[in-house]
Known about the structure:
Helix content: 25-40%
Number of domains: 1
Strand content: 15-25%
CATH superfamily: Metallo-dependent phosphatases
Low-confidence stretches: 17-22
Number of helices: 8
Distance between the termini: 51 Å
Mean pLDDT: 91
Amino acid sequence: MEEMFFRLLGKVLHSPVTIHLLRSTRLLYQNSHPSWVECNQISLYLPLLPASFHGFRLVQISDLHLGTWLSLEKLVEVTEIINRYEPDLVAITGDFVSFHPQEYKRGITEALRKLITNDGILAVLGNHDHWTNSEIIRSALNEAGVIELNNRAIHIRRGQDRIYFAGIDDHYVGKDRLDRVRDLIPEGAFSILLAHEPDYAEISSQDGLFHLQLSGHSHGGQIVLPRIGPLYLPLHGRKYPDGLYKVKDMYLYTNRGLGTAELQIRYNCPPEITLFELLAQPPNG
């Protein structure tokens, strides 16, 4: 029932009149300060990470929602920040647009083409990508050289060692096929899962296949009041809305995203770029 309500609400929010009205809310959040985006650096000790991947630099961004609050200029600025980190890999965990993807397809492609990595750029789609037009988003990613992990997995080598990156299509809209992904990862392999909705960790952590899940979706709440917390969190983003968690034997990180949903305001919840340094040995080891 709740999902049906939000599908109906989405249709109302994406109508031309409502889009025009909601654009006025960006006047309340005109953050042009040089530090408008928070860059979080996390050293994460993962005991089963192959030794040859010690120090692997993984950058995560999420929830661009290009065309609401986040502009193409700001997205290009984000790519420049990421490139300064000299990442091995960039992971993007869904929701590239909020509406009218055909208007922002070229911008997505041009911005993401600017990313420079050693091992590539991976992505999964989010609920808004499906609610608008997933094929346009897929085309934009493909033209940018981004690999979409649509219920599939790839591996990266360092000598004889491998680590696996897997991704599920969006759980909110019922496109996830974790059974297919499981069949692609050898038993005992080190693996990282990209899943748009963070609460999917309740499912993905059950059998110990994944060592880390990267998610977005919640925007950290966007509006977070002192002593109260987020005013609102979306379905499938309420249990693990922001930051690092341990779910059974799996780490989960929920990125706050770069953009905003239809309501174009953030308070006490800045946009985020996350740089992970994956460690096969303890930081002081």
